[in-house]
Amino acid sequence: MTDRGCVCVIDDDADVRGALGSLLRSAGFSAALYETPEDFLSDGPPPSASCLVLDIRLRGESGLDFQDRLVASGASIPVILITGHGDIPMTVRGMKAGAVDFLPKPFTDDQMLGAVAAAIETDRARRAESAEADALQERHERLTPREKEVMALVVTGLMNKQVAARMGLSEITVKIHRGSVMRKMEAQSLADLVRIAELLNVRDETIHRFNI
Amino acid sequence: MRDDAAGRRLARRVNGGAALLIALAIFALDVLTPLQGAVAVLYTSVVLLASRIQSRMQIILAGTLSLFLALIGYAVMHWGAPLGSAAVRLTVSFVAIGITTLLCLRNQAASEEKRVSEQRYRTIFNAAALPIWEGDWSEAYAMFRSGVEPDADVLDRVARSAVIRDANDAAAQMFGFPDRSALIGNTIVRHHTPAAEATLARIVTALLSGETAIQEETQFLTRTGEIIDVVIHVTLPPSDGEWKRVLVTAIDLTERNRAEQRLMQAQAELTHVSRVTTLGQLAASIAHEVNQPLSAIITYAKSGKRWLLRDTPDPAEAVTCLDQIASNGTRAADIIARIRNLARNAEPQNGLITLPPLIEETAALLNRDLDAHSVALRMKVEPDLPQVAGDRVQIQQVLMNLMINAEQAMSATIVNHRELCVGAERDETSVRITVRDCGTGISGDLESLFAPFFTTKASGLGMGLPICRTIIERHGGTLSATNNPDGGATFSFTLPAALQQHEVVA
User: Fold this and answer.
1) Which residues have CB under 8 Å from B414's CB, separation 6+?
2) CA distances from A69 to A17, A88, A188, B373 (A)
3) Nearest-5° angle of CA B308, CA B311, CA B317?
4) Whole-number pLDDT of residue B494
5) What does the pLDDT read at residue B506?
6) Which among A40, A10, A43, A9 has a CA at the least distance from the CA of A24?
7) How far apart are CA A19 and CA A105, in angstroms?
8) Rounded Cα gap, residues B426 and B495, in angstroms
9) Contact present, A90 and A21 (Cβ < 8 Å)
10) Which of A9, A22, A53, A58 would you mutate first to test chain B, the one with the most B CBs within 10 A?
11) In this predicted model, what pLDDT tens digit does every residue of A15-29 receive, in sequence order?
12) First to last CA, chain A
């Protein structure tokens, strides 16, 4: 069976942890089992698509507190909370903090595997998205300051001569810069460049059609 | 009683009449016959007869009458004659009558005193609230005199021959009769229980060995077949060498014993309730504790099935799952056994208790709860602790109570400082167990903690510590509390060390 992704489990009960590990592996996931949040953190962020199954009731720091800490640190791994005694305030707190699922014990194997599969899918999509964003960012970094300025103005819908006037350049020079921006950003069309600029958030916000 | 008085009055009249007739006859003899003797001396018989009635007045009357008749007789026969032998005879008669009268009066006074004293004794006997009866054991005495050994058969005969001569109403009531006439003339064989038979054997042995006052605790059957607990006191009066009047007094302890038993039962129930309440406080963490292995079992079962149903089944993984299911089942069963022990409502069982496992088990029960309240548990149990005697469950209950109290006392302490120390050490001939917290300590009177219904908790009954103290004291130990110099409180209890086998031998 192919690897369907890595599931990290934090549960202080060795038996419950072991059982979850066995279940996840039987369904084709790889499982990383941790007794405490610290053990999990010391392993570093998982390299591939993954999710975290977190028991709310832990010795010492509670699962919810750890979840807050994780979110604050900017980690983006999807979290599935499990608990034996979930109440509504706990659920609300967990979901507000961005948990993708909340499974009260006892959960069925299908519930758990379904939740895990969905969470990993989310993570995979997020990873793909963020990989694209990273690539665009990198391309944008390669532009010269002038080119960046031209791009920020072009994507607002200004014509070349308007850009030239604004920047105090000749229209020819603007055209050359614009051509290299299109090439360097690997944009197929102006519409594509506009989309990329949206993703990178580099549009010149000072330009409005009424104050040109 | 009324018949008695009437009979006595009649006897007095008959007696008085007879005395009067005899006096007249003697007078006739004196006056009408020419006898030359001191006939008047015969008047003494009148006085003696009169004295039988035991009336002081009548004796004096008889004496005076006799003197008077003797004087008249003399006057009739010898009036005017010179003083001669007749006068001497009269004098002799006077002296005789006088002395007889005086003696009779004294005798009457003595017997009157005796009668009053006897009556007082009777009154005491009858009016006493204490059951008293007097048995005639002379037949038994005769048997033993002839050399019979007191075996079971003989004792049965003794019991059947020991007739009650007298008994008071309290005795009758104790056996369930309306008044004493039902007892007098009978034996108490029909009220015997096996315990009473054994007691009789001991009493007879003691009497034979020369004791005259014996106390025994025994049981009798009442007329309605109820068993009563009695302490009897058997007394042999000093002058009674032949066991003719064996005095038995009894104290009916049935009510007292029953009350005591009810009290013990109530206490046992209270102890149980408090234990169950304590368990109730732990319910959430106990439920979690049991739930963990159960959810592991369910997950392992599901996972085992998946390993077997894969395209390429993995029996090795499935076997691991089955092993894990078994070991988690055992884990759950162990937890339940621990709780069941504490929850059972059984009679206290006395046995030898090895303390370290008991302390560990209690800690295991509380572990989850302590964790939930971020309390660190430190244990300092001395090796080679002597065993103690008592009821394991109750001792565990005390320890658990003290540990939960300690945990709750630290709820206001900052998280990293919540430390609970449980220690056990040998203290001369006993074992001391201490439970120390770093909480707020105890303000006010330390002893008031042990008063029933005293509580410092918002939701406490205030029965925990009094019950703990009762339990420890019933085990022969003490339970006390002190404030620590560096904050928090320490509760400690001692239990006397049970004697080890080799120590007994040495």
Assistant:
1) none
2) 22, 21, 42, 21
3) 35
4) 93
5) 36
6) A9
7) 13
8) 10
9) no
10) A22
11) 999 999 999 999 999
12) 60
Residues of B in contact with A85 (CB under 8 A): 284, 288
Query: Identity (one letter) of the amino acid at B166?
Result: D
Contact B292 A15 (CB under 8 A): yes
A34-48, A111-125, B418-432, B453-467: segment of lowest average pLDDT = B453-467
What is the number of H-type helices and E-type strands within chain A?
9, 5
Residues 6 or more apart whose CB falls under 8 angstroms from that of B450 comprise B465, B466, B469, B479, B481
Residue with token string 């959810």: B295
Q: Is the pLDDT of residue A210 over 70?
A: no
Residue B328: which of B301, B303, B308, B352 has the closest Cα?
A: B301
Contacts of range B12-20, beta carbons closer than 8 Å, 24 or more positions apart: B12/B53, B12/B55, B12/B58, B15/B49, B15/B50, B15/B52, B15/B53, B16/B50, B16/B53, B16/B58, B18/B49, B19/B46, B19/B49, B19/B50, B19/B62, B20/B65
DSSP label at residue B444: S
Which residue among A15, A27, A60 places its CB closest to the CB of B296?
A15
Question: Residue for token digits 């009548």?
Answer: B58
What is the C-alpha to C-alpha distance for residues B201 and B193, in angstroms, rounded to an integer?
13
- Please report the pLDDT score of residue A177 as a whole number: 93
pTM listed for this prediction: 0.58
Confidence of residue A1 (pLDDT cuts 50, 70, 90): very low
d(Cα B215, Cα B237) in Å, to the nearest integer? 15
**Which tokens sit at B234?**
């058997």
Q: Strand pairing of A50-55 and A30-34?
A: unpaired
Residue A211 has pLDDT above 70, yes or no: no
CB contact set of B13 (below 8 Å; sequence gap of 6+): none
Q: What is the DSSP string of B88-134?
A: HHHHHHHHHHHHHHHHHHHHHHHHHHHHHHHHHHHHHHHH-SS-EEE
Q: Residues of chain B whose pLDDT is less than 70?
A: 1-3, 36, 346, 458-462, 500-506
Q: In the 8-state DSSP scheme, what is residue B350? A: -
pLDDT of residue B273: 83
Helix pair A145-154, A190-200: axis angle to 10 deg: 110
Q: What is the pLDDT of residue B305?
A: 94
Quick check: B291 and A57 CB within 8 A? Answer: no
DSSP per residue, A6-70: EEEEE-S-HHHHHHHHHHHHHTT-EEEEESSHHHHHHT-S-SSSEEEEEES--SSS-HHHHHHHH
Query: Encoding tokens for residue B20?
Result: 């009067």
Q: How many CB pairs under 8 A join A and B?
A: 75
Strand A79-83 to strand A101-104: parallel, antiparallel, or no bridges (unpaired)? parallel
